[in-house]
Amino acid sequence: MARVVVVGAGVGGLATAARLAATGHRVTVVERSGVVGGKLGRYTRTTPEGTFHFDTGPSLLTLPQVFADLFAATGGPAGGLDLGGLLDPVPLDPIVRHTFADGTKLDSCADPDTFAGRIAAALGPTAADDWRRLWRRAGRVWDASWRDILRRSVDSPLALAPLAWRLRDLAAIAPGTTLRGLGRRHLRDPRLRVLLDRYATYTGADPRRAPAALVAVPYAELAFGGWYLRGGLGTLADALLSRCLDLGVEVRTGETVTGIDAAGGRVHRVRLAGVSAPLPADVVVANVDAQTVYRDLLPSPRRLAGLADRSLAGFVLLLGVRGDSELAHHNVFFPADYDAEFDAVFGDPGRGVPARPAADPTVFVTVAADPAVRPDGHEAWFVLVNAPRQARSLSGVDWRRPGLADAYADRVLDVLAARGVDVRDRVLFREVRTPADLAGATAAPGGAIYGTAGSLLRPANRGPVQGLFLVGGSAHPGGGLPMVALSAQIVAAEIGPA
């Protein structure tokens, strides 16, 4: 039985802790915040009209079977989408309602034939035929990724060698091609290209630089469906915490890990702020950003140099809104010039062009038709736009600058109004969350949503010293709830049973 210390009580940390405890290890989770969940955050606001509940992180659950498998492996019933008996998943249709700059609307769904029919009705039969061809290719990329990448450790490019023996898979993945290039090759309608480009932002990337293999992201969402959890996705953190406690995991919140001791090439203990005695450990699982691990907890300049800083952050408004807006659960309102948004958000530091908030951003609005999260006659809106990271340099923006956050919040509401959704006179309250706030709450460097490693190959799950492992969105296989849960599965298998 190993003494395991998990640093961070995000989804990856809790999932790993549950899997390891279920196989006999003694597990302690240490979390700097006063609550668990990490980026799966929540915010509650009580007003005279009633109480509003917001998810401040992910709002869509994909590949729910990954979590069903997790709960089954840690003591729950096998099969189906029971999700530990603690959660109530609801399939969404539409998964996302896309509104393009010309006013055209397109609802995505989990049935490929139905979605192709909706594309034909909204954009024409040629666009639908193009999408079907891209869909077949995306399916090949997904199958190869699921078989060879997503469920096993990938420590180096050599670990991808099995793909080279399957030339059809290799051709579909198209190494060296960007997601933007793939869209231009397969999709003639510019609106479908914009729809495909958006999936690069699921990994914090620019579609003009993101690898074409990310076409597997829309395939996973649209082939297996998008789901909502009644009461909000934050209930997933509650369920994972409950499972950990049932298995005897010790969860310590409000304590900050300041370092990992690894003399002699293996971990021995972790150091805690304000605590003189370190916490002994045979195994340390770091559920914090890889940049934080290799910069602060276990300094490793060589590994730190390989991490990318060009990763999206997000600017968020939490709105209490009077009345019924008749929106879908998830809504995306695209600008006329998508490239101008990426030019602004990423800037070009090499040429001296600073990053800046986009003047005309894509606006993502989540409105859950769930009476558990808002009073009658009102809506709880989560509004997200892509934003530069928090940084006092050309690569980011200092979101703490007085007046900036409120001014940009006004701008986002003006943009929504210009696109036909004007709620400025119906806003009961608003709460603004900037990349600086996310960085402070979760220790995500710069407030990067999906981790700082924004490339296809993320840092390995096995660290550079014996007994150190990485889970979470910045480690393999990447960001997003199901990928984070798969990283926990990989790490638990690498550590093995007690």
Automatic annotation (TrEMBL):
Keywords: Carotenoid biosynthesis, Oxidoreductase. One of its GO terms (biological process) is carotenoid biosynthetic process. It holds the Pfam family Amino_oxidase. InterPro entries: Amino_oxidase (IPR002937), Carotenoid/retinoid_OxRdtase (IPR014105), FAD/NAD-bd_sf (IPR036188). One of its GO terms (molecular function) is oxidoreductase activity. Residues 12-301 form the Amine oxidase domain. Pathway: Carotenoid biosynthesis. Belongs to the carotenoid/retinoid oxidoreductase family. This is Phytoene desaturase. The lineage of its organism: Bacteria, Bacillati, Actinomycetota, Actinomycetes, Micromonosporales.
